[in-house]
Structures are given as structure tokens and as C-alpha cells.
Specification:
mainly alpha, elongated
């Protein structure tokens, strides 16, 4: 039963990535105001996900979860700092500031993609490890 749960959870990753990819592709045809609305929605979604992760990490008490919790905290602090900088720069209308802001936003997006890929790889390993551990336990019962 746990294996089915893991597969279902893992499948959600590709579904979410596909939906995000579709939104990114469609963004090229949107106006600045439409992108601003999409950005606000994505920020709210990302913040909610970060809050859920934080709640899970706070509840965790084993060593591996503590390491994961530290990584999450550092990532959340990084994201908060970058968002604050982006918000400050949005207030300025200077072209050079806008270009720097765009470069910063691109760098953050690429970092987030790398982080997501690493998280997917780690999730794959953890899921396979859990399935292996269950199979090992089941074989000892038989």
C-alpha cells in the first residue's frame, strides 16, 4: 500500500512540472499586467508550499529530516531575500535597474529549477529506498 502512495505522490511532481511548463510557455503571449497577476498567483502558491514544508519540517524529529529542514530554511531565507530585492527594484523605473532586476530574476529562476531537479532526484532516491526497505521487511516476514 505504501508503494502505491509513493507512486501517486511522485506522479504529482511531473503533473505540477507540466502545468508550470504550460504556464511558462503561455507567458510569452501575455501582457505585463497579465504576467503581474500570474506572478502574484505563483508567489502565493509558492509561499503556501513553503509554509507546508516548514510545518512538516517543524514536526519532524529524526536526523535526516533535520538536515532537510535546514536546507529548506536556507532556501526559504534565500527566496525571501531575493523577493525583497525584486520588490525594491520593481519600484524603480530606471532601465538599468529593470535590466538588472530581470537578470536577477532569471538567475533565481535557474537556481530554483536546479533546486527542484535536485529535490526530484532526492525524492526518487528516498521513494526507492522506502520501497526497498518495505520489500526487505516483507521478505523477512515470509
Amino acid at each position: 500500500m505504501a508503494g502505491a502512495d509513493l507512486r501517486t505522490q511522485f506522479e504529482k511532481i511531473s503533473d505540477s512540472a507540466k502545468a508550470a511548463n504550460d504556464k511558462i510557455k503561455a507567458a510569452g503571449k501575455k501582457t505585463r499586467d497579465q504576467l503581474d497577476a500570474d506572478l502574484a498567483s505563483a508567489r502565493a502558491k509558492a509561499s503556501a508550499a513553503a509554509d507546508r514544508l516548514s510545518e512538516k519540517a517543524d514536526a519532524a524529529d529524526d536526523k535526516a529530516s533535520s538536515r532537510s529542514q535546514e536546507v529548506r530554511r536556507k532556501w526559504q531565507a534565500h527566496v525571501a531575500e531575493v523577493r525583497a530585492n525584486i520588490e525594491k527594484k520593481k519600484a524603480k523605473h530606471d532601465l538599468k535597474e529593470a535590466e538588472r532586476s530581470a537578470k536577477l530574476a532569471l538567475a533565481v529562476a535557474l537556481d530554483a529549477i536546479d533546486f527542484a531537479q535536485a529535490a526530484i532526484d532526492e525524492a526518487e532516491y528516498a521513494a526507492l529506498d522506502a520501497l526497498y526497505a518495505q520489500a526487505e521487511a516483507d521478505s523477512r516476514v515470509s
